[in-house]
Write a structure and sequence with these properties.
The complex is a heterodimer of chains A (477) and B (473).
Chain A lengths: L7 E5 L4 E4 L5 E2 L3 E5 L5 E6 L2 H5 L3 H9 L11 H7 L5 E5 L3 E5 L20 H4 L1 H6 L2 H4 L2 H20 L12 E4 L4 E4 L24 H5 L15 H17 L15 H9 L30 H9 L1 H4 L7 H12 L2 E3 L9 E3 L17 E10 L4 E10 L5 E2 L1 H4 L15 E6 L2 E6 L6 E2 L10 E3 L5 E3 L8 E8 L1
Antiparallel strand pairs in A: 1-2, 1-6, 3-4, 4-5, 5-7, 6-7, 8-9, 10-11, 12-13, 12-20, 14-15, 15-16, 16-18, 17-19, 19-20
Chain B lengths: L1 E3 L4 E3 H4 L5 E8 L4 E10 L11 E2 L11 E7 L2 E7 L9 E11 L5 E2 L7 H7 L9 E9 L5 E10 L8 E10 L1 E11 L3 H9 L64 H7 L4 E4 L4 E3 L2 E3 L3 E12 L5 E3 L4 E10 L11 E5 L5 E8 L1 E3 L14 E7 L3 E10 L3 E5 L4 E4 L2 E2 L2 E10 L6 E9 L4 E11 L8 E4 L6
The chains are: A alpha+beta (477), B mainly beta (473).
Amino acid sequence: MATPKPVLHATLDSGQVIEYLPEVIGEGGMKVVHFTPDRKSVVCFFKDVGVGADPQRLPRLQNIVGKYNPTTDPKTGHYWKDLFCWPTAIVVKPRLGVVAPTYAGNFFFASGPFKGKEKQATWFTSPKLRRMLPAAERGTWLAYLQMSIRLARAVRRMHNAGLAHSDLSNKNVLVDPASGAAVIIDVDSLVVPQVHPPDVLGTPGYIAPEVLGSANLELTDPQRILPSRRTDQHALAVLIYQYLLGRHPLRGPRVNSTQSAEEDERMSMGERALWIENPTDTTNRPAKLGVSYKVLGPYLAPLVERAFMNGLHHPAERPGADEWERALVKTTDLLLPCANSACPGGWFVLGEGAPRCPWCRTLKAGSFPVLNFYRAGKTGQFLAERHRLAVWHHARLYPWHVFDNHFAGEGADRTPQAYFARQSGGWWLMNQGREAMTVVGAAPIPVGGGIELKDGQQIQLSKAQHGRLAVVQMVNG
Amino acid sequence: MRQFLRGERHKLADFAPLHRVWQVELSLDAPQFVIDYCCLGLDIDGHPVGDEYLIFYNRPDAPYGAISLDNASNNGALFTLDLGNLPASVRRLVFTATLHRVESEAAMINVQGNGALADIFASAFGLTPDIGEGYLSLGAGTRETEIIEAGFFAFSGADFGRETTLVIGEIGWKDEWRFIGVGKGLAGDLSAFLRHLDGGSVRAQPVTIPPARVLSPATPTLAPPAPRRTPLAAPSPPAVVPTVAKPVAAAPIAQSPPPGGTLQDLIDAAAPNSTLTLMRGEYQGPFSISKPLTLRGQNSALWARQGPVVTVESRGVALHDLEIEVTIPQNASGESDIALKIVGEAPQLHDVRVRGRITGLLDGEGEWILPPALDLGRFAARAENGWKFELRVPTAVQLSSSVEGLSPSPDHVEAGQHQIMLTLRDVVPDAIIAGQIEVRSASLSRTIPVSGSAAKDLDAARAMPLWRLPAAS
């Protein structure tokens, strides 16, 4: 007869007692982690017993589990549960800790040399490591864009609520390029400005230059800069750059100190940090840079420039998470599938020049439509938005394309309003919405009907308030 | 644009979920007064946070660019708010206007609450209180990028009986940022308002009360009010009615064709002398009505690629609020360009707009020669452009345009051949025009589609010909 597995008991701050398994399944700088018997949750105990004695710690955790918790929002909570591994309860005995949901299975490698390990971004953004992964785990460039959107959205949600993560890094964001999923973990160290100060400075490579530059000062020194939303914005920009371009934005060949490797790292990521693609100072540019950041397109490239030029040493200049989210979402409208089935990226952004895939240099053949969106202004007038949609076979129009007051955020209506199809050499738009679309000077497109797209056509996507006008432009490959 | 009502609360995220930069524009037409516009930061309990968050003409910027004031003049003020840069202590932003009476061009007296606004309006230079109209408009974004207009809150001097400081609106935090139209008056100047907020208590963060602004000599006392950027009257109705029309008491329920069916099936199934009410939308024809029937649309469009689109073959037919459109009329032959064909007694027509030919109607038959469409092409942005076209009508008609800023002249012509001038003003660069010119006779309207796009660095069009009557006509 098998001996039942021993279980230990922990008491929550509500008085409830829960069981957990004695085996330590993970250990970080601050916590040790155990499974609950059903393995649906983990119990994380703070290693430092002094943490429990800190009178601010319990109220901080109570706020994190309670009023700061986006996953309990009745309307959007289910969405945020996929983006955050948010603590669900506080443990007070035998030591202070938290209970959190177990990461979803897709955030662990199912096969290959790293089977069973957590999917940290490092495995995917290092070209050497990436080559070792099974092809099914590598994902397309579209998935990296989706991961970036989810990360930016999650950070935007925290920042809008007045919170800062304080330690965003490749270790604290798990990703799954196979599905485009991303989840922020370790949210029990959230910083609330002027209420809950940060515990940690961050993770090397993601710590903002001003934090590193003032790390030698006393904590009480007013010149000392601690993690905040501004420093999260730096880490977010680094992560997005890594996801989309597969390299660190500041790690280049320039040596900033010959005293020691530590001092060189401190200078290179701190006061002498220099973007490897800085157009005016090329001393940190690798000999083989790879594709330029400009392949990210007209919405993202300017944010990258802001983040790593002016914003690198001037925190107030950094793009906010909301700006990143909006630019990333708009960039998905410029994606085109690469015609080369062996292309490592699979997708690329339509820029100003010829539609050539930057990952395999394949030029898209033939002509294809691009919709230029205009929002309703004064009655009968439609204003240019600098928002374009590149059309591919079976691309779709969603409510956030049809209406200028919809955004593809957490609460978005994702009902397709139309789809595009290539048929008999022509490109067609098929109306799947609930009302006809009107074409200026031509027959309307009834529900269920379609129209062959021609250069210069003006299609009013909806006559309802905030309905957009789309102007068709045929682009030649 | 939405009009906010007094006391209504609106979540900013409902208008622009991701914007943290917002613009609040205030305006009040009271040229005989000096007006100080102010944005005041309060804490959650309604107490002023400190001097640096009292933004007015003399202190136009809050720390970190959280609030900035531009264009402060007697005609209005523009506040730009970066809500993400406000400290946690500021949880309410209150927008006010304080009026000071002007005695002469170079001097003015602060009314200090001893004169009621209504009285002052009434006595000063013969003005009446209802002239003191104003508005607060709210938008997301900046002029450098793009502005999503959320709406406006309108008020008038008559709304304020015996006060001189007007609390116009407020943006406050309750789980998220919200706008509230306040429209409340307070006796006295801003100092009285601040004392009112503070409950007379002495606070750790005293707020310095700004002196009344010295009237700029550049503002002539008797200058006419500047043109308003936003009309103070109710906003013009949207081009189309809402997706789901409001139910009207005792009105028949709007009907949609059954699955797999058509509007013709509904017409065929309807009882004689009944009313068929249509949902807003587009219905593809052709259609034939051969019984007494009322067809009531809600800006519904009946269309077909070939005419006749609607044939009326019975007496006792009434058509309401419909667009009847044949979509490919060019070079048509036979009946294919006919939108409405009437055989026998003319139907009753109310608010019916037709694109295409009409036969069988008393004033509809005859020499109707209208341009099939007017393409304005690319024209000069931010300028006054002019075009001309010809038409021939068999009866007197009114002309109007569905495009704001585009006006036909003359707007009324008698039967005969005419040249019509079209003028279009102040369209922003890269904007597209898409609408119609309506030619309305006593019984119904005909429409001419009009389109074009504004571009920078072009010379303005001057009476450019768009379309001429065929030589043989």
